[in-house]
Amino acid sequence: MSVSSAAEPADPVRYGIVGHGWRADFYLRLARQAPERFQCVGAVTRRADVGARLEQQWGIPTYRRPEELVAAGAPEVVVTSVPREANPQVVESLVALGTPVLSETPPAPDPDGLRRLWAAVGASDLVQVAEQHPYLPVVVALRTLIAEGVLGRVTSAQVSWTHDYHATALLRTLLGVRAEPARVSAARTAGPLLEGPDRGGWPATQEVRQSDHTLAVLEMAGRTGVYDFTEGQWFNPWRRRHVIVRGSHGEIVGDQVTWSTESGTPVSAPIMRRHTGLDGNLEGADLDTLSCAGRVLYRNPYPGRRLSDEEIAIATCLERTGLWRRGLAPAPYPLADACQDHLLALAIHAAADAGGPVTTGAEPWATAVRP
Questions:
Q1: What is the largest CA-CA distance in the chain?
Q2: Given pLDDT bands bounded at 50, 70 and 90, which one contains residue 269?
């Protein structure tokens, strides 16, 4: 997954959506938040009453079938935001129409489903997957430091942040591994944790509940990834994110970078976030840059839109999919990468269930996974 910046489009990316709900709303909001960059040409819902609600709320046309959306809206790309069991069929139907797809995560529910989907559409080169985590601002900053060789040869990474395929996407990205066979060991325990907010906000009454905690070690291509996730961690303020990346010449722990100068002297510096609108600043509440040792590592590509980091990452993945189809940017996250990351996530759960290591092999999409 390239960290190079893509050109800003001369015209907004035209996209449609299949599905509705919490996840689809991110894409609908983008067309309002940055209309010069994104244009939603319609959505597909099976039920007419749901379509009527979307039309009223978002001012877009709706259709009952993907074929109708493609024919009427001529989208450059269609986002699928449907349950994982239904997603492969929707993706295949869009590919059959010759329409580029930005698929929801994961693209299929299980290893056999991944293999069937790859056999059906892998050769089409029409499917990207909406995995935004490698495009989160802080992750792009980390990737920039790694790509520039600040840490030397990266040997291990640890992520305690998000779950399953999202976390394995981060681990593979930070480690720079492709689809090599992996040996996965995992353990699952449970412990008490005070409830935090979920997608619907804070609970009316907070309780301490038992939460599963999964810890896994992935050995891939001579490198080691550590997966550490507690159920509900996404929004829980009592479980902060933890990222460690270690290399031959330094390491990153959270926002702190330590590396070696040419003379072998160890030096350290934090990754600094410049966020406007604080104290007496009147530029508006917005992410501006991430920098380290006086050098900018990341600049918000949507200034003035007041997007959260998550929204910036989702927007980046969508926009790069459109630019990829125009030949102006690398593919953001192809189907092959998504299949490999979900395979690794499923192996983590299989190892935890089995109480012993699980080994993944070379899959049909292995040669298509990028370095």
A1: 68
A2: very high
Q: Which two three-digit tokens encode residue 305? A: 């839109």
**Closest of 347, 353, 358, 306 to residue 172, by C-alpha:** 347
**Residue 321: what residue type?**
T
Phi, psi of 42 (to 5 degrees): 150, 170
Strands of 13-18's sheet in order across:
62-63, 38-44, 13-18, 77-80, 101-103, 127-129
Considering only CA atoms, which of 2, 10, 17 is closest in space to residue 323? 10
Which token pair is 116? Answer: 């069937």
Q: Count of residues for the chain?
A: 371
**Residue that has been written with the tokens 């877009």 in this structure:** 60
Render 311-366 in DSSP notation, one character per residue.
HHHHHHHHHHHHHHHTTSS--SSBHHHHHHHHHHHHHHHHHHHHTS-EE----TTG
Among residues 342, 349, 358, which one has the least CA distance to residue 117? Answer: 342
Q: Which residues pair with 220 in a beta bridge?
A: 182, 223
pLDDT at 371: 75
Mean pLDDT in the chain?
A: 95
| Alpha helices for the chain (secondary structure H) | 22-33, 48-58, 66-73, 87-96, 111-121, 137-147, 164-175, 309-325, 335-354
Measured CA to CA, the distance from residue 105 to residue 233 in angstroms comes to: 18
Tokens of 285: 């509440």
Residues 6+ apart with CB under 8 A from 12: 35, 36, 37, 38, 39
Q: Write down the pLDDT at residue 4.
A: 52
pTM higher than the cut 0.85: yes
Which pairs with CB-CB distance under 8 Å and at least 24 residues apart come from 161-164? Answer: 161/229, 161/233, 161/241, 161/242, 161/243, 162/133, 162/229, 162/233, 162/234, 163/229, 163/233, 163/234, 163/345, 164/106, 164/229, 164/342, 164/345, 164/348
